[in-house]
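Closing statement on the dinuclear copper ion sub-project.
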Amino acid sequence: MSSIHIDPLEKKWIWAVGTIVVLTWIVQLYYAIADSIHPPSNVEVIDSAKLHMTEEFAEKNLGVKKEEDGSYTVTMVAARYGFYPPMIEVPVDTKVKLRIASFDVLHGLHVPGSNMATMVVPGYVSEVTTAFTKTGDFPMICNEFCGLGHDYMYAKVRVLAKQ
Ligand code: CUA
């Protein structure tokens, strides 16, 4: 029985690639744990063409709601080319659960400086929970190319001091 011959140079590259893969895993694991960065795990389907006919995503029910436990729920719709409502106000250091659905195509959502980032895939409800740690106005930007108006698709998050 003869063992497979591997060229020494090839062997070096196998190790190099293997090392890069393992380092990448370590970096991802580090940020997943240290900064709580991870893909949203919520899987919930919805008919994107009929958002306005649902209770939760009807226009009059969008926006910020305070829950009984003191946390907040934000319900939004992403549609070319904006987030609705275009501005939300939430208190600092408070649990905020964002639920958002797309009315048309694939959008993304990112609030720089926070872990609020998710894809908004038509047909699904995206859910992200966070707590903003700084007061002030922050942009909520679309980070998935969704058409000619993509660059202009944003909303504002106003984080207020606790009362
Ligand atoms: Cu919506 Cu890009």
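The chain has two domains: 1-38, 44-160. With this model delivered, the sub-project is considered complete and its resources will be redirected to Aim 3.
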